[in-house]
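Hi support team,

I submitted a single chain yesterday and got back a structure, but I'm not sure I'm reading the token output correctly. Could someone confirm the output below corresponds to the sequence I sent? I've pasted both exactly as they appear in my results page.

Thanks,
R.
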Amino acid sequence: MDILYTCGMWGMVPSDPAGAFPRIKEAGYDLVSLRAPASVEAVRPILDLARSLGLRLVGQFSTFGADADAHIRSFREFLPRLTAFEPLLVNSQTGSDFFAHADNVRIMSEMDVIARDAGLVLAHETHRGRGTFTIPATLRLLEELPDTWLTADFSHWCVVHECLLEDRRALLDQIIPRAVNIHARVGHAESPQVSDPRAPEWQAAVDAHVAWWDAIVGANRARGAKILTVHPEFGPPGYMPTLPFTDVPVSDLFAINRSMKDRLKPRWAKV
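Hi R., thanks for writing in. Yes, this is the structure output for that exact sequence:
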């Protein structure tokens, strides 16, 4: 199984593909994750630049609207731009925690069909504010959606459940086999992001997350997956803490994400 590493454009400096993509390639990433531009025509130069550097793309999308029909429609309308990326994967923040369970089931189910018909691999991200906002809500969804894939960002659940999920491993083990993409950000009981995962005060949180990610790698190898994508996804302010009165981030975002990639890559290359 090939494990491919993604760098996101969220908080990237420079923020334009022409400036960012060479930096991403030099840092040893395989993929770039980004949201679709305003038109299909605007995708072509981005795709050409990525290809020239030997990078592939991951499409990032978030459903929106007042009800389930609007969320499904938002995906249909963005689909041409996402497809034009020729993405290895589309990551979606899907549905809403305000919607009824049946509405989120319908949104995810219809999106899965739309994506498969378009030849896309779609993974729904475990995320606050979305249909997958808690472990119980996600388990209910997966019971009714046996063909649905997930992006595992368990840092969100640390906040929602206000713990490092110490007593939830049996439940996580039911979810882990559905994960085809890892958002490798470390959270804790009060925030989806530690200040710097290299700092010793966050060791327990890092260890907890790495153990979950190890299990996802193992589950994907066990089912014979050819590819697993890993996206170190520490974000800029307001995910990253800042110094009071200055809004200066306490850590270097690009360095943090690169350090997480460099930590995980040799770990899983040995297995």
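A quick pointer for reading it: The beta strands are 2-8, 31-35, 56-62, 89-93, 122-125, 149-152, 179-183, 227-231, 242-243, 248-249. Let us know if anything else looks off.

Best,
Support desk
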